[in-house]
Amino acid sequence: MPRDNMASLIQRVARQARITFRSPAGPAFGENLHRLQQLLDKVRAEDLHLAPRGPSAAAASSGGGPPWAGVVPPVSYMHICETENFSMGVFLLRSGACIPLHDHPGMNGMLKVLYGTLRIACMDTLPSGAASAPPPPAAGSGPCLRALFRSRQHYTPASPPCLLSPHTDNLHQIDAVDGPAAFLDILAPPYDPQHGRDCHYYRLLEGPPAGAEPPALPREVWLMETPQASDFWCGGEPYPGPRVCL
């Protein structure tokens, strides 16, 4: 049997990611990205030897909050591989967990849900000076930026990958809905503060009044940069799936 036919699906995804993000400005980038998207769309939890967490992970505590609050990380990460051009791993969110609104400076990204349901809100930063109105009073003295709130959608294992580019859907918030969830994540290139690719967190400064229908999307919004939330942190877990060699 040819060696490529013996390779695991996640190995083939990693190889295609290496080809795709080796030359993100090259003429074949669009075609290579499409091939990577097609491969990523085939990945299922069982391909990585993952199974949804048990019923206790989705149970509510007697106090009304998630049972893991303040005890274990709301989010865990399984590292699969990393090169100078891309990183790949799995994020596991406990029931009710949220990865707060954050950015990916100058980066491409792909996200494929493996189990559970995610609600993903995506935004674009707008050019400096594009604001048609001043920030709301709630902004205070923190740094603010104008953004286009593009979409808020639910993703399941049956959904195609969620894509982001340096200029489109580059800011997003990820919430686990109705139970635990997991997704395969590719970032290209990886975060690297020394090269200007640090993660920044934001808070939406405007929203609908309580009980009102959310405003239609897309729409322009104000965001304020904030420190990482005290109730959000990411732990680490060993990756149980097929080995990836690059």
From TrEMBL:
This is AEDO dioxygenase. Signal peptide: none annotated. It holds the Pfam family PCO_ADO. Keywords: Dioxygenase, Iron, Metal-binding, Oxidoreductase. The gene is Ado. GO terms for cellular component: mitochondrion. CDD domains: cupin_ADO. InterPro entries: PCO/ADO, RmlC-like_jellyroll, RmlC_Cupin_sf. GO terms for molecular function: metal ion binding; oxidoreductase activity, acting on single donors with incorporation of molecular oxygen, incorporation of two atoms of oxygen. Gene3D superfamilies: Jelly Rolls. The keyword Metal-binding applies. It comes from Melospiza melodia.
